[in-house]
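Explain this fold:

***
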Amino acid sequence: MEYALKTWFFLKYGCIESKRHKVHFTLALLSCIIVVTVACVIQTVLYHAPLIFLRTAEGSSGEIDIKLTSENENYYLNKTRIEELISDKTAPRVVFGNSRANCVHCSTSDKKANIYFIDTKREKDIELGREYPYDPLKLGECMIHKKLALALHIEKGDKISLYDLDVNWWRSVFQSFTYEKNITVPSSFAMFYFTLELTVVDIFSKGYGKVADGSASSLVLAELSTLYQLYSQHIQADNYWPTTQGYSEFLTYLDTHSASDLSTHILISMPKPRTDTYMTSNYDNIQKKVTHKASGIVDDLGFYPVSVDLPIMDELQPLQYVTIFLGILLDLILVILFALSVILIYSLLLVSIETKTFELGVIRVLGLTKTGMVFMLVTQTMIFVIPAIIIGIFLSFGCNKIISDMFEEQIGVGFSPEPTPDAVGIAIMIGFLMPIIAGMSPLRQIFYSNLAESLDVSHSKSKAVSIKIEGSDSVVKRTIVWFGFVTVVFGFVVYLLLPLALLSFNLQLLLGIFLAILIAFLLGLVLLSMNFQYLFERATVLLFFWWESSAMRLMIVKNLAAHRLRNRKTTVMYALALAFIIFLSVMAEMQLTAASYRNLQSHGVKLVVQADPKTDDILPSHNLQLVVDNYGDIIDSYSWVTKELIQVIDEADATLLKNLGKAYEYNVQIYGVSPNLIDTIFGEFVIVTDRDTSTGLSLSEQLYTPEGTQGALMGTLYEDMLDLSVSPNSTFLVQVYAPYDNFFRVMRPIAFAESFSGFVMSKFPKNKKQSFLVSIPTWQDLAGKYAESANNVPMGYLMIKLATSDGDLIDKLYTDLNEVISYNDDLSIWDYRDSQSTAQQSAGLMSTVFSLVTLIAMFLCFFSLVSSMSANILEQAKEISVLRATGVRKIRIAILYVYEAFVLLFSAGLMGIMIGTFVAWTMSVQQVMFNDIPMPFIFPWEITIAVFVGSIICAFLASFFPSRKLVAKPIAELMRTLS
């Protein structure tokens, strides 16, 4: 009963205090609501954040989790039989990948086309093609890609003819018929060489997840259920067929069977919702789930010669580091916002205690114990904490819905607005932890406050100078003890976990350790910078207020000194927040551009005509040369690159670099390059560690000098491994290794690079098979009889540097280039725009998320500033009354506090900028090492300027109005103000 009465009394007292100090209560409530909401939302978004990178991977592979194909190109898959063996739903396809297309009513030449007969309903059932907006196509209808439509001059409603539809597949259809009927029917290839005429009902511009965006340019889509009907119509229209034995039986067979019985591809998705499989930033966990599913399918199918591909996993593999870094960033957001909120509540509680010292002194005189004081403070915090947790969790539903809609709009897939159980648990934990951690210092102040000082109303409580005398050496230094304890625990944990992460190659654990170190690093720098706070404040006063009177400048400095202890919390918050914002902006930019940089670095330019490196096919260089010469107005430059040497020499098994003693050897990829290669490729990815600068020529031009014909461009790795240098006396061996013919040549390096556009060069041993660039004549010499003529050099790549970004002009060039290579399915064009759309969607989404986090951090800091400045102004009521009595105008007193707030924020901002820039730079260097991609450090000038302008506005709002309200009171009333 006694405890119940006390609780009721403290609750009543807390409610009264909340009404009396509405601003403090509102700030505390809002800060808790914001942090609880953000914690709930961040954790939910963190759970679904891998969707962003899943979308990037799907852009490169299509939304295909598992793809089954036959190991023998002359055999196909029976969808019905496969579904009898496995429990999963499947989506069959018949793909004619080396076909031709032409316009029925146009005079254009035919073009290469990839014709996909798909089952739209089944693919929708397995969640393949989330954004695919079309209904199943009807008999005789098809859709084609925009680039193919431009090449054929086709518009909606035109007819398109399709031929070269894989004769082997049609033979298999006929053989299936004869096998089922157990009859012998003669056939000829003429029965399977025919043309389909379809009406183009729509033209699309992207793959919609059905196929990879980069391979959609020659795509034709039709409905699988209509394939046999189209063939049946062709048979009935052919005068030859009715005379064939078994004609009517074959028509019946086509009417009663499905083309899915001879599928070229069977597609299977992960369990619904399929995106849940990818809801983790740990690539190993995703790989485990997908490979387990694929292995189970193979086991169920038994001995059938089925090949299993995992397209999305192949594309996610190079993104695994990026997803882990994103997880670290989102975890860091939660930690920093929690820290900011703790500091804010700590500041509010401290201000509450400092502004009520007299009142608390009277309560203590009336007999309230220190334990009761603690209970009173806890009760007071629970008044705003419990409602904040409830409101925050409910608000998270709305915030999650908004973010889910953003996901839906940007990447085509949303998520449930209901916060995850982990998110709710973390939000509740953070909600209760904030006041507990923040209340420790105010509680200590209650315990150790002097009762006489609390009841003294004739002196100000501000202390510019504090002197503490300790009379015994046995006094325990609590700060030192706690600091020592925390650092020992931190070091012990890192000491144990770091070797575990390295030995098990657990990247998530390793980067989690980096996160802990990073947070300690960031907080340590903020605390270190506090030692320079006074210097920054004095420098800011001299820099911005040199035109003010010396008396005003002196009062600004004195006010800052008197309020230093209270202002320190605000300084820490702003410095930490701004450092965090700059760090977050830099890292977000790196995460969002990582995929684009990887694409650009690996291809070297934005448009590449290439031959499949796994085949012996070469580019028709003469015809391509004619095309690029006609587009001199939009092509800045272009360069030729030969096929890799080992692909040209039939009997060669390897191309090796060796030292002269032949003790060490390394596989390399030897290419011949044009002399203008450096002028064509992206220069920002070319990082040369050592070269000869005396010639004045570019690196690729040096290959064509008399000395350069004996030299090569190579990776920095080999400089260390083979002990080489850029010197005429530094030589090595190039060996073309073949079982019956070994060819050696002595060469020397002309330059070493740790990165090179379009080629693999590195200083890290993980990339041991790197590119080795020589002049085309040198490459011919190495190739010997396989490239004896200069007009007969087998080219593998045509790299084109564009001089325009006009999409229509580039499409025209693309169309003409594609027409030249359309005869061969192993020749293709890589267009940067095909992969850029997906990356831009992900970038827009992440930019929005990080902008919201920045706004929330600034809100929390503004709350702290309002609280501190209100307390500072109220605490100096007597000083203000004295200034008023001596004739200082009201507006000048208000401006004095505006100046104080500005100096406080500006100096804290400077510290935050230096800390954030340094930490972001170190993190960017670390990520460059992980990804082995040179990425520039981009300082976020725009957001920094915006934060500074916002700080000035915040300084004015937080100080001008409270000071104006106070100075408006009569001088006598100000003198009687208690604090």
Q: What stands out?
A: Residues 603-832 form one domain. The first strand starts at residue 66 and ends at 70. Residues 832-875 form the longest helix (44 residues). The radius of gyration is 36 Å.
